Amino acid sequence: MSSCTVAHATSRVLFAPAPAPAHHRYRGLAGLRAGLPARCTPAGLARRAWMGRLRRALREDRFVLHYQPIVSLRDGEVSHHEALVRLADDPAGALLAPGAFLPAAERYGVICDIDRMVLEKVAAVLGRAGPRSSVRIAVNLSALSVSDGRMLSHIERRLAHHGAPPSRLVIELTETASICDMRQAKAFCAGVQALGCAVALDDFGAGFGALHYLKHLPFSYLKIDGDFITGLPRSAHDQLVVRALVGLARGMGFSTIAEFVRDRPTMRMLRELGVDYAQGFHVGRPRAVVPA
Hints:
Layout: H1 3-14, H2 22-25, H3 27-39, H4 42-59, E1 63-72, E2 78-87, H5 98-107, H6 111-129, E3 137-141, H7 143-146, H8 151-162, E4 169-174, H9 175-179, H10 182-195, E5 198-204, H11 210-216, E6 221-224, H12 236-251, E7 255-258, H13 264-273, E8 277-278
Parallel strand pairs: 2-3, 3-4, 4-5, 5-6, 6-7, 7-8
Antiparallel strand pairs: 1-2, 1-8
Protein backbone atom coordinates (compact mmCIF):
# COMPACT_ATOMS: atom_id res chain seq x y z
CA MET A 1 0.00 0.00 0.00
CA SER A 2 1.46 3.41 -0.94
CA SER A 3 2.02 6.14 1.59
CA CYS A 4 -0.68 8.24 -0.07
CA THR A 5 -3.18 5.43 0.30
CA VAL A 6 -2.25 4.92 3.93
CA ALA A 7 -2.51 8.65 4.65
CA HIS A 8 -5.90 8.86 2.93
CA ALA A 9 -7.20 5.88 4.85
CA THR A 10 -5.87 7.28 8.11
CA SER A 11 -7.44 10.67 7.50
CA ARG A 12 -10.79 9.05 6.88
CA VAL A 13 -10.59 7.35 10.24
CA LEU A 14 -9.28 10.38 12.10
CA PHE A 15 -11.79 12.81 10.68
CA ALA A 16 -14.80 10.54 10.43
CA PRO A 17 -17.78 12.01 12.29
CA ALA A 18 -18.52 10.51 15.65
CA PRO A 19 -21.53 8.19 15.81
CA ALA A 20 -24.66 10.12 16.58
CA PRO A 21 -26.38 9.47 19.88
CA ALA A 22 -29.12 6.91 19.73
CA HIS A 23 -31.88 9.51 19.97
CA HIS A 24 -30.38 11.34 16.97
CA ARG A 25 -29.80 8.21 14.93
CA TYR A 26 -33.46 7.24 15.12
CA ARG A 27 -34.83 10.74 14.60
CA GLY A 28 -34.98 10.18 10.82
CA LEU A 29 -36.95 6.97 11.29
CA ALA A 30 -39.28 8.71 13.70
CA GLY A 31 -39.79 11.53 11.20
CA LEU A 32 -40.53 9.02 8.46
CA ARG A 33 -43.08 7.29 10.67
CA ALA A 34 -44.61 10.64 11.60
CA GLY A 35 -45.12 11.44 7.90
CA LEU A 36 -46.82 8.15 7.11
CA PRO A 37 -50.29 9.09 8.47
CA ALA A 38 -50.44 12.18 6.21
CA ARG A 39 -49.56 10.10 3.16
CA CYS A 40 -52.06 7.41 4.12
CA THR A 41 -55.06 9.72 4.49
CA PRO A 42 -57.78 9.42 1.84
CA ALA A 43 -56.54 12.67 0.27
CA GLY A 44 -52.93 11.44 0.24
CA LEU A 45 -53.88 8.10 -1.28
CA ALA A 46 -56.05 9.82 -3.91
CA ARG A 47 -53.16 12.11 -4.80
CA ARG A 48 -50.77 9.20 -5.28
CA ALA A 49 -53.38 7.29 -7.28
CA TRP A 50 -54.04 10.19 -9.65
CA MET A 51 -50.36 11.00 -10.11
CA GLY A 52 -49.59 7.38 -10.95
CA ARG A 53 -52.58 7.10 -13.25
CA LEU A 54 -51.80 10.28 -15.20
CA ARG A 55 -48.08 9.58 -15.54
CA ARG A 56 -48.81 6.04 -16.69
CA ALA A 57 -51.28 7.41 -19.24
CA LEU A 58 -48.57 9.72 -20.57
CA ARG A 59 -46.05 6.89 -20.83
CA GLU A 60 -48.51 4.59 -22.55
CA ASP A 61 -49.99 7.27 -24.84
CA ARG A 62 -53.49 6.88 -23.39
CA PHE A 63 -54.55 10.48 -24.00
CA VAL A 64 -56.54 11.07 -27.16
CA LEU A 65 -57.69 14.27 -28.82
CA HIS A 66 -61.11 15.15 -30.15
CA TYR A 67 -61.69 18.23 -32.27
CA GLN A 68 -64.71 20.54 -32.04
CA PRO A 69 -65.44 22.98 -34.88
CA ILE A 70 -65.73 26.75 -34.48
CA VAL A 71 -67.81 28.27 -37.28
CA SER A 72 -68.28 31.73 -38.67
CA LEU A 73 -71.71 33.19 -37.94
CA ARG A 74 -71.45 35.22 -41.11
CA ASP A 75 -71.14 32.41 -43.67
CA GLY A 76 -71.29 29.15 -41.70
CA GLU A 77 -67.77 28.12 -42.70
CA VAL A 78 -65.47 26.40 -40.20
CA SER A 79 -62.82 28.82 -38.96
CA HIS A 80 -60.84 26.30 -36.89
CA HIS A 81 -61.19 23.44 -34.43
CA GLU A 82 -60.42 23.26 -30.71
CA ALA A 83 -58.41 20.25 -29.54
CA LEU A 84 -60.10 18.64 -26.52
CA VAL A 85 -58.14 16.02 -24.59
CA ARG A 86 -59.69 12.77 -23.34
CA LEU A 87 -58.25 10.03 -21.11
CA ALA A 88 -58.60 6.50 -22.51
CA ASP A 89 -57.60 4.27 -19.59
CA ASP A 90 -60.99 2.95 -18.48
CA PRO A 91 -61.17 -0.88 -18.61
CA ALA A 92 -64.69 -0.58 -20.01
CA GLY A 93 -63.40 1.54 -22.87
CA ALA A 94 -65.10 4.80 -21.82
CA LEU A 95 -63.30 8.08 -22.43
CA LEU A 96 -62.89 10.42 -19.47
CA ALA A 97 -63.73 14.06 -20.21
CA PRO A 98 -61.16 16.69 -19.19
CA GLY A 99 -63.24 17.83 -16.22
CA ALA A 100 -62.62 14.45 -14.61
CA PHE A 101 -58.81 14.58 -14.64
CA LEU A 102 -57.46 18.04 -15.51
CA PRO A 103 -58.11 19.47 -12.01
CA ALA A 104 -56.03 16.62 -10.57
CA ALA A 105 -53.35 17.16 -13.22
CA GLU A 106 -53.11 20.84 -12.28
CA ARG A 107 -53.13 20.11 -8.55
CA TYR A 108 -50.41 17.48 -8.73
CA GLY A 109 -48.12 19.13 -11.27
CA VAL A 110 -48.72 16.87 -14.29
CA ILE A 111 -50.53 19.48 -16.38
CA CYS A 112 -47.44 20.84 -18.16
CA ASP A 113 -46.59 17.37 -19.44
CA ILE A 114 -50.16 16.97 -20.70
CA ASP A 115 -50.00 20.38 -22.42
CA ARG A 116 -46.77 19.39 -24.17
CA MET A 117 -48.30 16.10 -25.25
CA VAL A 118 -51.33 17.88 -26.72
CA LEU A 119 -49.08 20.34 -28.57
CA GLU A 120 -47.05 17.45 -29.95
CA LYS A 121 -50.14 15.67 -31.27
CA VAL A 122 -51.60 18.85 -32.76
CA ALA A 123 -48.32 19.83 -34.43
CA ALA A 124 -48.18 16.35 -35.97
CA VAL A 125 -51.75 16.67 -37.28
CA LEU A 126 -51.02 20.08 -38.79
CA GLY A 127 -47.80 18.80 -40.34
CA ARG A 128 -49.55 15.83 -41.95
CA ALA A 129 -52.27 18.10 -43.33
CA GLY A 130 -49.66 19.84 -45.47
CA PRO A 131 -49.02 23.50 -46.29
CA ARG A 132 -52.00 23.76 -48.63
CA SER A 133 -54.50 22.67 -45.99
CA SER A 134 -56.92 25.13 -44.42
CA VAL A 135 -57.05 23.21 -41.12
CA ARG A 136 -56.40 25.34 -38.03
CA ILE A 137 -56.42 23.99 -34.48
CA ALA A 138 -56.66 25.71 -31.09
CA VAL A 139 -54.85 24.35 -28.03
CA ASN A 140 -55.71 25.51 -24.51
CA LEU A 141 -52.67 25.97 -22.27
CA SER A 142 -52.68 25.89 -18.48
CA ALA A 143 -51.40 28.59 -16.17
CA LEU A 144 -48.27 26.60 -15.38
CA SER A 145 -47.42 26.25 -19.07
CA VAL A 146 -47.88 29.97 -19.67
CA SER A 147 -45.46 30.69 -16.82
CA ASP A 148 -42.93 28.13 -18.09
CA GLY A 149 -40.12 30.09 -19.73
CA ARG A 150 -39.34 27.15 -22.01
CA MET A 151 -42.83 26.75 -23.45
CA LEU A 152 -42.49 29.31 -26.24
CA SER A 153 -39.34 27.71 -27.66
CA HIS A 154 -40.99 24.30 -27.24
CA ILE A 155 -43.93 25.39 -29.43
CA GLU A 156 -41.55 26.72 -32.05
CA ARG A 157 -39.46 23.53 -32.10
CA ARG A 158 -42.42 21.15 -32.34
CA LEU A 159 -44.02 23.10 -35.18
CA ALA A 160 -40.72 23.13 -37.07
CA HIS A 161 -40.12 19.44 -36.38
CA HIS A 162 -43.45 18.46 -37.96
CA GLY A 163 -43.35 21.07 -40.71
CA ALA A 164 -46.54 22.66 -39.39
CA PRO A 165 -47.23 26.28 -40.43
CA PRO A 166 -47.50 28.44 -37.26
CA SER A 167 -50.45 30.28 -38.79
CA ARG A 168 -52.47 27.06 -38.38
CA LEU A 169 -52.11 27.05 -34.59
CA VAL A 170 -54.21 29.04 -32.10
CA ILE A 171 -53.09 29.19 -28.47
CA GLU A 172 -55.94 29.64 -25.99
CA LEU A 173 -55.36 31.08 -22.52
CA THR A 174 -57.86 31.23 -19.69
CA GLU A 175 -58.21 34.30 -17.50
CA THR A 176 -56.81 32.30 -14.59
CA ALA A 177 -53.75 31.47 -16.69
CA SER A 178 -53.14 35.13 -17.49
CA ILE A 179 -53.56 36.41 -13.97
CA CYS A 180 -50.52 34.57 -12.53
CA ASP A 181 -47.93 37.01 -13.86
CA MET A 182 -49.13 39.78 -16.16
CA ARG A 183 -45.68 40.70 -17.43
CA GLN A 184 -44.85 37.09 -18.21
CA ALA A 185 -48.25 36.49 -19.83
CA LYS A 186 -47.78 39.58 -22.01
CA ALA A 187 -44.33 38.41 -23.14
CA PHE A 188 -45.70 34.93 -23.85
CA CYS A 189 -48.63 36.23 -25.94
CA ALA A 190 -46.34 38.55 -27.89
CA GLY A 191 -43.92 35.68 -28.49
CA VAL A 192 -46.68 33.38 -29.70
CA GLN A 193 -47.89 36.02 -32.14
CA ALA A 194 -44.32 36.66 -33.31
CA LEU A 195 -44.13 32.98 -34.24
CA GLY A 196 -47.16 33.53 -36.48
CA CYS A 197 -49.76 31.84 -34.25
CA ALA A 198 -53.00 33.43 -33.10
CA VAL A 199 -53.91 33.89 -29.42
CA ALA A 200 -57.39 33.54 -27.89
CA LEU A 201 -58.57 34.55 -24.42
CA ASP A 202 -60.86 31.79 -23.18
CA ASP A 203 -63.78 32.22 -20.73
CA PHE A 204 -63.85 35.97 -21.30
CA GLY A 205 -66.09 37.74 -18.81
CA ALA A 206 -65.92 34.99 -16.19
CA GLY A 207 -63.61 36.90 -13.83
CA PHE A 208 -63.08 40.41 -12.57
CA GLY A 209 -59.80 40.81 -14.42
CA ALA A 210 -61.26 40.61 -17.93
CA LEU A 211 -60.92 44.30 -18.81
CA HIS A 212 -57.44 44.42 -17.31
CA TYR A 213 -56.36 41.61 -19.64
CA LEU A 214 -57.70 43.45 -22.68
CA LYS A 215 -55.61 46.46 -21.81
CA HIS A 216 -52.35 44.59 -21.38
CA LEU A 217 -52.44 41.38 -23.44
CA PRO A 218 -52.55 41.00 -27.23
CA PHE A 219 -55.24 38.65 -28.56
CA SER A 220 -56.89 37.69 -31.83
CA TYR A 221 -60.02 36.10 -30.36
CA LEU A 222 -62.11 36.56 -27.22
CA LYS A 223 -64.16 33.51 -26.27
CA ILE A 224 -67.22 34.67 -24.35
CA ASP A 225 -67.79 32.55 -21.26
CA GLY A 226 -70.52 29.95 -21.77
CA ASP A 227 -72.40 31.10 -18.68
CA PHE A 228 -73.58 34.11 -20.71
CA ILE A 229 -74.53 31.93 -23.71
CA THR A 230 -76.52 28.94 -22.45
CA GLY A 231 -79.59 30.99 -21.53
CA LEU A 232 -79.03 33.87 -23.96
CA PRO A 233 -82.40 33.86 -25.83
CA ARG A 234 -84.31 34.02 -22.52
CA SER A 235 -82.08 36.38 -20.52
CA ALA A 236 -82.13 40.13 -21.13
CA HIS A 237 -79.22 40.44 -18.71
CA ASP A 238 -77.04 38.02 -20.71
CA GLN A 239 -77.99 39.79 -23.94
CA LEU A 240 -76.84 43.12 -22.51
CA VAL A 241 -73.54 41.61 -21.36
CA VAL A 242 -72.84 39.88 -24.68
CA ARG A 243 -73.73 43.03 -26.66
CA ALA A 244 -71.33 45.04 -24.49
CA LEU A 245 -68.53 42.47 -24.83
CA VAL A 246 -68.95 42.37 -28.60
CA GLY A 247 -68.79 46.16 -28.86
CA LEU A 248 -65.72 46.28 -26.65
CA ALA A 249 -63.92 43.53 -28.55
CA ARG A 250 -64.77 45.00 -31.94
CA GLY A 251 -63.54 48.43 -30.88
CA MET A 252 -60.20 46.90 -29.87
CA GLY A 253 -59.86 44.86 -33.05
CA PHE A 254 -60.66 41.40 -31.61
CA SER A 255 -63.05 38.78 -32.94
CA THR A 256 -65.55 37.11 -30.59
CA ILE A 257 -66.38 33.41 -30.16
CA ALA A 258 -69.44 32.20 -28.25
CA GLU A 259 -69.03 28.90 -26.40
CA PHE A 260 -71.70 26.33 -25.42
CA VAL A 261 -74.05 27.10 -28.31
CA ARG A 262 -76.74 24.42 -27.99
CA ASP A 263 -79.70 25.43 -30.16
CA ARG A 264 -80.90 27.44 -33.14
CA PRO A 265 -82.46 30.33 -31.15
CA THR A 266 -79.07 30.96 -29.53
CA MET A 267 -77.38 31.00 -32.95
CA ARG A 268 -79.95 33.51 -34.20
CA MET A 269 -79.49 35.73 -31.15
CA LEU A 270 -75.69 35.63 -31.49
CA ARG A 271 -75.96 36.85 -35.09
CA GLU A 272 -78.23 39.69 -33.99
CA LEU A 273 -75.74 40.70 -31.29
CA GLY A 274 -72.83 40.70 -33.73
CA VAL A 275 -70.82 37.74 -32.39
CA ASP A 276 -68.33 36.52 -35.01
CA TYR A 277 -68.00 32.78 -34.31
CA ALA A 278 -69.85 30.00 -32.49
CA GLN A 279 -68.81 26.74 -30.83
CA GLY A 280 -71.00 24.11 -29.19
CA PHE A 281 -73.03 20.95 -29.74
CA HIS A 282 -75.47 22.72 -32.07
CA VAL A 283 -72.54 23.75 -34.27
CA GLY A 284 -70.73 20.43 -34.11
CA ARG A 285 -69.76 17.78 -31.58
CA PRO A 286 -66.13 16.87 -30.92
CA ARG A 287 -64.79 14.24 -33.32
CA ALA A 288 -61.72 12.03 -33.18
CA VAL A 289 -60.54 13.17 -36.61
CA VAL A 290 -60.09 16.69 -37.96
CA PRO A 291 -61.91 17.05 -41.31
CA ALA A 292 -59.41 17.85 -44.06
